[in-house]
Design brief:
- 27% of the residues lie in helices and 25% in strands.
- By secondary structure, it is of the alpha/beta class.
- Among the domains are: 87 residues, membrane protein fhac (Ubiquitin-like (UB roll)), CATH 3.10.20.310; 155 residues, Rossmann fold.
- The strands form 4 sheets. A 9-stranded mixed beta sheet has the order 10-9-8-11-12-13-14-15-16, with helices on one face.
- The chain is rod-shaped.
């Protein structure tokens, strides 16, 4: 009996294909059309020009293009324009554009004529001319970004003792707002029959500008009394002996300015002005203090401390009565010290 031949492996595969359906694995597709080029395109291979160089694979970067359609006015028809690439700027490019814009703005603000200070809004000054304030500030040729308000305030306070305070603010594009507060004169200091300066309630002196009806006129033969710790600004400060001392001296902040006249003296003047006989002048001398020329032919002084002015006035009338009873003609009567009054004959 002849032995049957065993089918080969190829015959078995052919027989299986006839019986079983072919199952093919589906090709994966991306849900996004823009990803088709990234997943379905073979990598690009770049060849170097040097001999013996190896091939370097480079990932393809298909550009995403944006389609643009225009309506033609006919229903159902459109015109497709050439595809435009989508521009997506990065953070570096955006930062560079911002920095360039800021540099350009700073250059224009510093050198442009539009940002040079040419508008000044002045308020609060009644006696000081605006032209003098503008000259003192020296801000007419500056750019608005170069203006330091604190420096301008310091210049105003140094140049004009008339000001009690000064405030400067800058406003774009080229405006300076200046607000000052002027001192109110309380006394007019008259020396050698010439008005020398005004004195405010705090004792600060400043030049006479125009006219004022409220100040009390004091006719003096010497300067008014200074407060404790007063330093004459006209006296030069001696420089330090060595460099270390000079550096230490420079680091010490400048003290706040002190009034040139003792504020208590201002109160004394105002107190004695209330009892000053009508038609007489208020006098002052460093030796005898405040007083006046009595119409009966002599001078009377009450000192500079007038806390007990009522008692001094009462004592003055008793002294005058005693002198007249003795038929004496005094030249000066002094009540600087209440318990030690005296009079001087011609």
């Amino acid at each position: 009996m002849a032995q049957e031949s065993k089918p080969s492996r190829a015959d078995q595969v052919r027989a299986r294909r006839k019986i079983e359906p072919v199952h093919r694995k589906p090709i994966p597709t991306s849900p996004h059309p823009s990803d088709h080029g990234r997943h379905g395109t073979a990598p690009v291979v770049a060849r170097r020009t040097k001999t013996g160089a190896a091939y370097v694979p480079m990932a393809s970067r298909p550009g995403t293009r944006r389609r643009v359609y225009l309506k033609t006015g006919t229903p159902g028809s459109e015109v497709r324009l050439p595809a435009l690439p989508t521009f997506r700027p990065g953070w570096r490019l955006l930062s560079g554009v911002i920095a360039l814009a800021m540099l350009l703005s700073a250059y224009l603000m510093k050198n442009g004529a539009m940002f040079q200070v040419n508008v000044l809004n002045l308020s609060g000054a009644q006696r000081v001319p605006a032209s003098e304030m503008i000259t003192a500030m020296q801000a007419g040729t500056q750019s608005i970004i170069e203006v330091v308000p604190e420096d301008l305030e310091s210049r105003l306070m140094t140049s004009f003792p008339d000001f009690k305070s000064a405030r400067v603010t800058a406003q774009l594009p080229n405006i300076l707002n200046v607000t000052v507060e002027e001192r109110i004169p309380a006394l007019v200091w008259v020396q050698d029959e010439t008005p020398r300066y005004w004195v405010d309630q705090q004792g600060f002196t400043f030049p006479i500008r125009g006219e004022a009806t409220l100040p009390i006129q004091v006719y003096a033969v010497s300067d008014p009394p200074h407060p404790l710790g007063y330093v004459d600004p006209t006296v030069a400060v001696e420089p330090a002996a060595d460099a270390a001392a000079a550096e230490a001296q420079a680091e010490v902040p400048a003290p706040a300015p002190l009034p040139a006249v003792d504020p208590d003296f201002i109160l004394a003047v105002q107190a004695i002005d209330t009892v000053l006989p009508e038609g007489t002048r208020l006098l002052y001398s460093a030796e005898n203090g405040l007083g006046w020329n009595d119409p009966r032919g002599w001078q009377v002084f009450f000192g500079s401390d007038l806390q007990s002015i009522t008692l001094k006035l009462s004592a003055y009338e008793n002294i005058v009565q005693a002198i007249l009873d003795r038929n004496l003609q005094p030249k000066l009567i002094s009540l600087e010290f209440l318990h030690a009054p005296y009079y001087r004959l011609e």
